[in-house]
Design brief:
Blueprint: H1 2-7, H2 9-18, H3 28-37, H4 50-81
């Protein structure tokens, strides 16, 4: 699993720039995060429905995969370039 996350960072970047930012004005993932942050996701006049949570998952998953991939690649880069004596 780690190898898949490490090797596919380009795919995750493209997915983030397309699906992760769709529909671009404003991105769904941003509007859903604002909705959750505003406190109206669970209660209030219009709480988030199942489709809204699914929408957040679909548009947020590329971001999560990209961040995980970058963290794994960053750790690998640091480990590779770390001096033996440190």
């Amino acid at each position: 699993m780690t190898a898949l996350l490490k090797d596919n960072w380009k795919l995750f970047l493209v997915a983030t720039l397309t699906l992760g930012l769709a529909p671009f004005d404003p991105p769904h993932v941003w509007s859903k995060l604002v909705w959750i942050n505003g406190g109206g996701a669970f209660n209030g006049p219009e709480p988030m429905a199942f489709i809204d949570w699914l929408d957040l998952l679909v548009h947020g998953l590329p971001w999560i995969l990209l961040v995980l991939s970058l963290l794994i690649n960053g750790k690998s880069f640091i480990d590779k370039h770390r001096k033996v004596g440190d």
